[in-house]
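Protocol step 4 of 6.
Sequence for Signal recognition particle 14 kDa protein (Porphyra umbilicalis) entered exactly as in the expression construct, tag removed. Do not edit the line below.
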Amino acid sequence: MGLLDQDGFVSELAKLYEKRKLGGSVWISMKRVSRDVRTPRKQPIGAKCLVRATDGKKKISCAVLAKDSIRFQLDLMDVVKAHTGGLKDQPKKTRGMKGKTS
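Step 5 output, structure tokens:
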């Protein structure tokens, strides 16, 4: 699949989470992307971030410019918070008495 726009990525990510609601995992990765130095550009473009998500079968990705990163992070945070509410806390291990003193 090619690069999606930011809104399309967020909606597809929500669909991935819904599909894996009962079981499975969704992985999200972010990577800074630098442009190829061999191809000169007339106007400098700010730094980009490549965001990828997969559930092991379906892969989606989008590129986020630095100026749009705050809005994208907020949208991404809303989706992740909405779909990770069912996580269970692990039980705390209780330590037994190290030694009995009499």
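Step 6, annotate. The longest strand covers residues 27-33.
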